[in-house]
Structure formats: structure tokens, C-alpha cells
Design brief:
CATH superfamily of the largest domain: Ribonuclease H-like superfamily/Ribonuclease H
Strand order of the largest sheet: 1-2-3-6-5
Oligomer: single chain
Shape: elongated
Number of helices: 16
Radius of gyration: 30 Å
Mean pLDDT: 89
Length: 432
């Protein structure tokens, strides 16, 4: 049961002050604030502000956005506004219906809320802003609202931002995928990685040919034709679609993924060899050696350096694989595509002669993609894998932060909101 205070001084004093504040932060054309009152509720006290049409104003049709004659008035509705001093604020308004010759009988357009939404647009933008700083669950708890209200606010911000974002002048993109749910559920992510602008451009469900084709359809032929560089891993569907849709661009294979393949090969060799030594009754010299072989020498601790030096005394396949990996690091130091290609050919030949199957598999893969590997040098090393990987780490953090993600749509909205660098209306800055 709610109780409205009737103190005259409060009504005339505090009410007028609140009305002045509202007029400063949120004025609506053709509408004025009526009585503003303090309401004591059983749970939380609130402020209620009555909104009234300005005298002589005509309602605007929500369909065609034209002024139309009034038809009737509906029952009063409550619209939640931005809290003041931690106190909930509500607008009270009885919407009018219009008799529109084009759209028929329609509810008028209200400048503070869209359709049947009970949150004002200002409050929705407020929640969306906080949702960039905190998880959606934390935002809902902080402002005593629901998870759905936060989601709807973020969805509104993303819809508006994507409709108003500038997609001109994009020259370089990076394509990769992340796992967002168990059971091998992936998202395909496309980033702009230009020097002056780095952001998430597009999210696609799964990682198939059809998925990436969806990006190029959305991006359009004209923008695609202007692309100069595309960075991706060696996932076959990516290679196929990029060659078909953006053949004019220099396609750069992602450095990070290449080194990942080498690390996985070494790990496979080490695990197999450790098992073999144990079965034959030899000393377990490879015990706790995994990170010794995967880390760069400059990142090892003093204790790890000592243990690695001891391992080097043994003629193990794991050690030979490690030395091949470290030798391959020299590839990235070249400047000329020609000499980088010469080094690559020699390294692949040497690796094929090593008789270490996991490493030979990597060498065959690198030979297969030789032209794309050398594109990294043709692009003057401008686009490192660190850009894409940095975004992917943020994307994974976003999916972990946003408690309650059960659907692809929710994950998609969260990623655009966090990483899309989407524009916001200028008026929203008044509330931050």
C-alpha cells in the first residue's frame, strides 16, 4: 500500500525543486511536468512526476510520426526514469490515441519511451552505460531492476549504435572464432584492425562457410572491394570464402595460430615420449617439462633454465622438436618476402628429415600455405596477431561476465556492446 505525503510545504517546496531539476536534465517538446511528489512505498520510497501535454499541442502518430487529431485517452502508465540520489523516479502519463488517416487509430508517439516499454529511453541508456563497466547481473542488483531490463537496454543501445555506425574507409579486417559454450559451440568474429580504428564489426553463429559468407553479404560488395588486408588463421572455410569474396586483398595468416600449431606439435611429442620412457623403465626426465618446452627462453625462470640445460644433454625427440620451434622464430625477423621464403623452405626440408611426425605435419601445413605466410612480410608486418588475440581475450571475458547468457542472441548483443565501439546519442552524455 502506497501513501502519498500531503504536507503543503513539501508539495510546494520540494515538488517545485524536483520539477526544476527534471526540466534541466530532461525536457520534452510539447509536454510539461505537472505535480511532482514524494511517495512512501512499502519497499522503497519513490518520486513520481506527472507528465502532461502542453496546452494546445496535438499528439503525434507513432506510425507515421505526423501530428494527428486526438481520438481518446488511455489509462495512466508508469515509466521509470534515472534514479536521483539512489531514489527511483517514475513518470506518470496517460497516453493519447490518435485518429490517423494513414495508420488508423494508434497510440501517440511519446518522446521518452518506445512502444510499450516501461523504461524511459534515458534510463535505458543509463543502464546500458553501466553495463559496459559491470556485469549485467551486477547492474541489475545495483539499481534494483531486473536482468531483463538491463538486457533490453543493452539491446536498444546496440540496435541504435549499429544503425548509426560509420563503416566507410575500412581497409583491414581480422577474422577469428571463439568458443562461447560447451559442446564445440563457436562464434565467428570479424574485427576492424586499421591503425586508427580497432573494433568488433560483426558476429556470426558457428564457424562455417555459410557463416563467413553472411559477413560479406552484410558488409557489401563495395566495401569488400576496398579491403587491402585480411588477417585470419588457416581454418579451411575461412581460406575458401576469403579467396572467393576478397581476392584483391592481401590475405595474412595469423602469426599466433602458426606458433600455436608448433606448440601443440611439441606437446604431442613430449607426451608420447614421456609415456614411452616410463614404459621402458627409463628415468622420468620429461616430468614437469611441458612449460620448459613451450615458453620462450627469455621467459624462463632461473630454475627452469637450469632444468632445460639438463634436458639438452639428452637426444630426445622432444628436445629436437623444441630446437626446431626456436629456430622457426627466426622466420619472423626477416624483412624481405624472398629471403623469408628461402628460410621457410630450408626449415621445412630440415623438419621433414627429422622423422618426428607431429613436426612433419606442421611443415607440410606451412608448405601448403607458403604464399599466405609470406603475405605477412608483404604487408610490412603491420598486422600482428596480437590485435586479434587481444580482442578475442576481451570477447571471452565478456561472455564470462554476462551471467545468464543462454542464447546466441544475448551473446551477440553483449559482444557488440563491449567491443563494437558503437556511437551513442549525444544527449545521453548528460547522465554520466
Amino acid at each position: 500500500m502506497m501513501k502519498v505525503r500531503t504536507n503543503i510545504n513539501q508539495k510546494k517546496g520540494t515538488g517545485m525543486q524536483l520539477k526544476t531539476i527534471l526540466n534541466r536534465v530532461q525536457k520534452f517538446k510539447s509536454f510539461v511536468y505537472g505535480p511532482v511528489r514524494w511517495v512512501e512505498a512499502a519497499r522503497d520510497p519513490t518520486i513520481e512526476a506527472v507528465v502532461q501535454p502542453r496546452r494546445g499541442s496535438r499528439p503525434v502518430c507513432s506510425g507515421c510520426c505526423r501530428k494527428r487529431p486526438g481520438y481518446d485517452t488511455l489509462v495512466e502508465r508508469r515509466f521509470e526514469f534515472i534514479p536521483m540520489w539512489g531514489i527511483k523516479v517514475f513518470f506518470l502519463y496517460a497516453p493519447r490515441r490518435v485518429n490517423c488517416p494513414t495508420c488508423g487509430v494508434r497510440v501517440e508517439r511519446m518522446p521518452w519511451a518506445e512502444g510499450k516499454h516501461r523504461l524511459t529511453e534515458a534510463y535505458a541508456w543509463f543502464l546500458a552505460g553501466w553495463a559496459k563497466r559491470l556485469s549485467w547481473k551486477e547492474v541489475a542488483e545495483a539499481f534494483s531492476t531486473s536482468w531483463d531490463h538491463v538486457f533490453n537496454s543493452v539491446e536498444m543501445a546496440v540496435t541504435w549504435g549499429r544503425a548509426h555506425q560509420d563503416l566507410s574507409g575500412i581497409k583491414a579486417i581480422g577474422i577469428d572464432e571463439i568458443q562461447w559454450q560447451r559442446g564445440h559451440k563457436y562464434l565467428t568474429l570479424v574485427y576492424q584492425i586499421d591503425k586508427n580504428c580497432k573494433r568488433l564489426l560483426w558476429v556470426g553463429n558457428k564457424r562455417k562457410i555459410k557463416t563467413l559468407l553472411g559477413f560479406f553479404h552484410w558488409f557489401g560488395k563495395e566495401r569488400t572491394a576496398e579491403l587491402n588486408y585480411i588477417c585470419s588463421d588457416m581454418w579451411k572455410p575461412y581460406l575458401k570464402v576469403i579467396a572467393k569474396k576478397a581476392g584483391q586483398a592481401i590475405h595474412i595468416l595469423d602469426r599466433f595460430h602458426i606458433m600455436t600449431h608448433l606448440s601443440k606439435a611439441i606437446d604431442e611429442v613430449r607426451a608420447g615420449e614421456a609415456k614411452e620412457l616410463k614404459e621402458k623403465g627409463y628415468d622420468p626426465v620429461l616430468t614437469k617439462s611441458r612449460w620448459l618446452l613451450l615458453k620462450r627462453p627469455e621467459n624462463l625462470t632461473e630454475k627452469q633454465e637450469t632444468k632445460l640445460a639438463d634436458l639438452m644433454q639428452y637426444n630426445l625427440r622432444s628436445i629436437r622438436s623444441y630446437l626446431l620451434k626456436e629456430e622457426f622464430q627466426l622466420f619472423w625477423a626477416y624483412q624481405s618476402p624472398y629471403w623469408a621464403g628461402e628460410f621457410l623452405d630450408k626449415w621445412c626440408t630440415k623438419t621433414m628429415r627429422s622423422k618426428i611426425e607431429p613436426m612433419k605435419k606442421v611443415a607440410r601445413m606451412l608448405r601448403k600455405h607458403r604464399p599466405l605466410l609470406l603475405n605477412w612480410f608483404r604487408a610490412k608486418k603491420q598486422f600482428s596477431s596480437g590485435i586479434v588475440e587481444g580482442f578475442n581475450n576481451k570477447a571471452k571475458l565478456t561472455t564470462r561476465k554476462a551471467y545468464g547468457f543462454k542464447t546466441y542472441h544475448a551473446a551477440e548483443i553483449a559482444l557488440y556492446h563491449a567491443l563494437g565501439a558503437l556511437p551513442v546519442p549525444k544527449t545521453t552524455h548528460e547522465f554520466f
